[in-house]
Amino acid sequence: MTTPPLKTPIDVSRVQRRVLGVLSAAQIVSGAGVAVGLALSSLVVSRLSGSTVIAGFAGTATVLGAALLALPTARAAGRGGRRAGLTLAYVCALLGSIVAVVAIGLESWQLLLAGLVLVGGGSAGNLAARYSATDLAPPGHAARHLSLVVWASTLGTVAGPNLVKPAQAVAEPLGLTGAAGPFALAALSFAVTALIVVIGLRPDPFILARRIAAPPTDLAEPAESAESAKPAAARDAGGRTLRTAWEALRRSPQGRRALAGIAVSHTAMVSVMSMTPVHLDHEGASISVIGVVISVHIAGMYVLSPLVGWLADRIGRQNVMLIGMGVLICAAVLAGSAGHHHVTQVGAGLLLLGIGWSCGLVSGSAMLTDAVEIEHRPAVQGMSDLLMNVCGATGTILAGAVVGFAGYGVLGAAVAVLIGVFAVWIIVAARRLTPAAEGPAAT
């Protein structure tokens, strides 16, 4: 399918306001679906399997699903626009939620894990939505527009767990078990999200941005063949999305630094966050106290994202990324060095951990978007989300091993060293390059 030329003027700012509104609404609804569906997933798997070890695979399954669906979502966006990519992700999450409901009815933990892999499409869609906000952003505003969509997910993430009990209460009169209620609600949430995207995301921001960016010579040549008229990302199918992304990143040192920054920030955050409840439990903290600490951490991840986006546009993406690295180092040292029963110090560390992650994600995502041409963005962004989720899953596994053998303090020190090494690398790498070597012009 060719991208037709833009023949009539269009108010891009008005379209972008609509896009941001639609994406924010989708993030709120789908965020609730992700949160309510996963709130009890480990517990349900544990009860069905009778094994706490197998219960741990519940979280791994959703992360794996988000990683596996990142590239198909990007490929669909490259071929048919953001609407197609996001719809694919949320429909997969809808199907996964339905499979989970059936699995609980059949008391099959194996089928439930398979459903949770598809539920990971909700996370894949939410991650892809942040990039959708940048397609029509005016120059110098990509980070703050992206951060608004990231912030919107806070509302759904916070509301989701509070809907678990009502969902369980409603499930029983409908003939479902109480445990299936949250997944039924998640299915409804993802269905509504898909409808919001399909109906509201018109015109499609990526397709419109591609038409605006098309050079005049392309617009004046209607006789070219349909295949040659397609941009590289639109022709990308099968297993070539990764190759397309790598070719674009090979020409962009800035893109590679952004990709690494996102991955390292996410790995550091997930590694410390995933083991904090275990550490606090061993220290004798109550479930309510652990819940408060994690809530403070989540607030740090999302609440300040608009401020982070504004700073990234004002003082530069790389500067905010380095600030985030410094905050992450402080967070790892603060949490890791907390003595027995110093829950307040751990909470402060987790708050900083969330803020540092926000700096890395928002600035890195905007930096990555700036670094490549419009037609290559979906492939590169999909590769970023794939790497981010794979690194997160790997970080969780390694963090468990470190805490098991050496303790929580050693994990904090190891994460601080990892971030410090990366920060030095990014500074040295940036100084070796001239301004002309940066961004999409460096072809």
UniProtKB/TrEMBL annotation:
Its main location: membrane. The chain crosses the membrane at residues 20-40, 52-72, 84-106, 112-133, 145-163, 183-201, 258-280, 286-308, 320-340, 346-366, 386-405, 411-430. Pfam families: MFS_1 (PF07690). Residues 19-432 form the Major facilitator superfamily (MFS) profile domain. The keyword Membrane applies. Keywords: Membrane, Transmembrane, Transmembrane helix. It is a multi-pass membrane protein. This is MFS transporter. It comes from Microtetraspora fusca.
